Amino acid sequence: MTEGVGTAGGLDCAPGQAARHARFPALDAMRGGAAMVVMLYHIGIASGHPQLAPFGFLAVDLFFMMSGFVIAKAYEPRLRDGLPFRAFVGLRIGRIYPMLAAGVLIGAAVAAVRGGPASIGVAALRSLLLLPDWSGHLLFPLNPVLWSLFYELVANLLHASLARHLTTRRIAIAALVAGALFAAAIYRYHEAGFGWGAQNFAEGFARAGWGYLTGMLIARVRIPTGRSAPLFPLVGLALLIAPATGFVPVRVIAMLFLAFPLALLGAVRTPHCRWPRLAAHLGNLSYPLYAMHQPLVMGAAAMMPSPYAWAGLALALILLAAVTGRYIDAPAQILLRRLLAGRRGAPTPGSAPATPPSRRPWRR
What we know:
- By secondary structure, this protein is mostly helical.
- The protein has one domain.
- It contains eleven helices and no strands.
- It has helices spanning 25-47, 59-80, 85-114, 120-128, 146-161, 168-189, 201-220, 231-241, 248-268, 276-300, 307-344.
- The radius of gyration is 19 Å and the shape is globular.
- The two termini are 35 Å apart.
């Protein structure tokens, strides 16, 4: 696996978007930091310096956990109270697709210059529809990071369709099953990077399931963390960039099944942040950075003369993501959501549910 997925940081937020409700500033900062680690990982591979962020590919598992947490917090109550499934789908499309489309267009332009799929138009259409291509090495050759968005959207749709039946016990059992299948696949293939290609497509569901369901559990169960909670996200990010020397298999397992859940737990149990504006900016640029960076890194691979040029590219990508997130992604999301709401009759966020709230208690 080579990518990570952008996820929501504040409640009722798309990846990288500002929240309308409660915010988790440490979660915003961790999401932005993880997106930068993914970028560094891809730059390291393209520049011939894979030790730059050797475990950066595992950031996707952290992103899956964040997605499960945020969707559970932001949408489960509304789904149980009558938010129609098609309205939920419209909201998710409105959140995800502006930057997804931008990444696909960039990927198509890069492929046209440097050579890519035989039919760039067909590949672009498949990418826009999130339809995997099993005929080649990558599921989404124009912008490989889309593989994780595919799994995330599948998880979102299953989550919404089953929301009324998801007790905490059932989620825990499903998480244990997914985790066991994921661990078995890691043991069998001696790697954890599943989901990005046709050869490991099936194992990707176990991987995404473990992360997403773990995030859902953390959203429901209160686990005391003490004063050390702010350290957990820092440790999780530090492990992603630590040198890949010694005990690598043990470290990968420890990250996936211990450090990352603790990092998410610590982030959501840290109510205050010393630099809240910086945390918000990091959260806002995370999804644009994730969605757009890899085609640009791939296009730059043949023309970077020195490490300094790669450093300049990294800074340029971060600046591009910050500007795009503020001036393009946010307005485009609002416009797309309004168009979908008007066409489908879906309520906009913050509006009353379409049906009266259910009075049944939430079963655990």
